[in-house]
């Protein structure tokens, strides 16, 4: 499928937009890792566009230069506030449902973006699908995290897909248990994918070999979930 891409540099929205040339019925706001709009995020947006969905990669740092240093990226991420994040993501949802005239919009989050996907889907009932891969949920919450994502998960009204690795050094097993219990109590569908030997970040970490092996199963199911909910 032919797609078109562009970088959006404000002032209301910052990010990367990939769309099928012939238009799309549904779209996804991709909430990336702490490394923001890197090659992985852009590539996944292109994959979604090739599947028939418009995809906007939200720029977590609102136009700041891309960096690859983990510690510096972590400092940036820990300066974010939940209220500002939800507001910023909401502007992309407004745009996709408004100017782009899409019929349905979902969110897809990786790592820290997975936690933000929970917050967004719990507070914005316009969202029709919520997918997250290895969401970075630290329990207890960090000082800059005013919103309780584990409690708010129960308020998500749309279908949810949670992609959970067995070797996650950020979100602990008991954290996933709390999250999944909240999701399973809802009346909306919940799909859980569990990869016992995959690591946190396995979809963008080629080593060890268990990571790409898990990705080969996880990614097609993730795409199918979003497509089924939004097209």
Q: What would your notes on this structure say?
A:
By secondary structure, the chain is α/β, with parallel strands linked by helices. The protein has one domain: Alpha/Beta hydrolase fold, catalytic domain (Rossmann fold), CATH 3.40.50.1820. It contains seven helices and eight strands, in the order βββαβααβαβαβαβα. α3 packs across α4. The longest helix is centred in the last third of the chain and has 21 residues. The two termini are 15 Å apart. The mean pLDDT is 97.
- Helical amount among residues, as a percent range? 25-40%
Low-confidence stretches: none
CATH architecture: 3-Layer(aba) Sandwich
Task: Give the total of domains.
Answer: 1
SSE succession: EEEHEHHEHEHEHEH
What is the strand tally?
8
| Highest CATH level, the class | Alpha Beta
Shape: globular
Side-by-side strand order of the widest sheet: 1-2-4-3-5-6-7-8
Strand content: 15-25%
Give the count of helical stretches. 7
Return the CATH topology: Rossmann fold
Cα(first) to Cα(last) distance is 15 Å
Structural class: alpha/beta
The CATH superfamily appears as: Alpha/Beta hydrolase fold, catalytic domain
Please state the average pLDDT score.
97
Largest sheet: 8 strands, mixed
Radius of gyration: 16 Å
């Amino acid at each position: 499928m032919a797609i078109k891409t562009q970088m959006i540099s404000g002032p209301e929205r910052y990010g990367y937009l990939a769309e099928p040339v012939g238009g799309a019925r549904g779209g996804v706001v991709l909430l990336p890792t702490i490394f923001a709009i890197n090659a992985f995020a852009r590539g996944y947006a292109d994959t979604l566009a090739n599947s028939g969905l418009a995809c906007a990669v939200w720029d977590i740092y609102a136009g700041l230069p891309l960096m690859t240093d983990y510690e510096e990226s972590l400092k940036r991420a820990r300066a974010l506030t939940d209220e500002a994040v939800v507001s910023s993501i909401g502007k992309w949802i407004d745009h996709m449902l408004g100017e782009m005239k899409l019929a349905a919009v979902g969110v897809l989050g990786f790592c820290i973006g997975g936690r933000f996907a929970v917050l967004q889907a719990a507070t914005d009932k316009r969202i029709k699908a919520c997918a997250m891969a290895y969401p970075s949920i630290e329990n207890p919450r960090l000082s800059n995290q005013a919103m309780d994502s584990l409690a708010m998960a129960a308020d998500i009204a749309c279908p949810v897909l949670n992609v959970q690795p067995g070797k996650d050094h950020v979100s602990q097993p008991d954290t996933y248990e709390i999250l999944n219990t909240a999701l399973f109590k809802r009346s909306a569908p919940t799909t859980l994918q569990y990869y016992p030997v995959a690591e946190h970040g396995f979809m963008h970490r080629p080593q060890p070999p268990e990571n790409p092996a898990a990705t080969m199963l996880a990614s097609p199911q993730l795409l199918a979930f979003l497509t089924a909910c939004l097209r």
